[in-house]
Design a protein that fits this description.
Oligomer: single chain
Helix content: 25-40%
Order of helices and strands: HEEHEEEEHEEEEHHHEHEEHHH
Distance between the termini: 28 Å
Length: about 375
Amino acid sequence: MSLEPPVQPCLSSLMLGVRLMSWAFLISLLQSTPNLKVYITNLETGAIRRVPFATTNAEGDGGPIPLHRKALLEALAEELPADSIRFSSKINTIETITHEGSSIAVVHMEDGSVIKAKVLIGCDGVHSMVARWLGLAAPVQSGRSAVRGVAEFPQGHGLRKEIQQFVGAKRRAGYVPMTDKDIYWFLTCPSPAKGIDHLARDPEAIQREVIENYAKDLPEQYLDIVKHSELSTLTWDPLVYRQPWNVAFGSLSKENITVAGDAMHPMTPDLGHGGCSALEDAVVLGRHIGTSFIQNGGLVPSEMPRVLANYVAERRWRGVWLITGSYFSGWVQQGGSSRVVKFLRDAIFYAFLFRKLANIVHYDCGKLPTIRH
């Protein structure tokens, strides 16, 4: 989020963004349908297992809904004032000053500009400068990498709204239709010994490497999806996470500064809940700040340390469980080819634990406060 001019609260953009999330999700629901069916194919045996997702009501609703992140970002951004967002703005340093007995965050940008704010919320990703200022340990490598992309079929792909996943020795791949024309696909594997720097900025090389090496024995349908990828969407990145004990016992807020999303709890993508957990953070944070705003008739800087501490208390252990559950889910599904790992994956994880673990994504963020006129 952008910060407002000197000594101005960032509350308006935060609350507006939170308020619009329900609207953005309504639009996404009109464009997508829940994917309640997951089919997992064992690449070694050819066996196909159907694994149901946990649902939230008797009608079977509540499963995962595929949504292009670009669509959500655009829906939110379009409702904000034109100058609310600054692009390509990097933070150099952060400090705090005291103004009328309250702490003010001072952010020094790479372009030389200085921004002051009554509340600073670091949503600056895995390598967050704000998290570093708070003293949080840097994320660590998981030993795995992920290739991700979006395939486009202008005339329609004709596939059912189902999640297809393929598992083998130290490898996992899958795809899920997002719309009638777009399909999200992924492939996870051990991080190459020589690294992936030579592929990071070359989408054609990424596509070629997947087709010719990593996915050459996968079903033709999967290969066709990879071949239809929009090159600008292709990424190949190492999977990192913040060790859960650092979230459990680390400093997630200080004075009027805190973090949210990947800046707070970066996790591997094996629950498909990283972006969703950031939205959870936003709603909970908006609820705490909004309640204070209403009770005090405005944003009171001296109240912010307590407000942010309450937000952190509510989100800390949620982040710990999401990181742990996601890491375990990825490890057991891509753990190797030994008999023990296969038994744990096929006979225990998919049969008993998968649905329970997937249920962790269901979370009640609470209701946002409202002002009665």
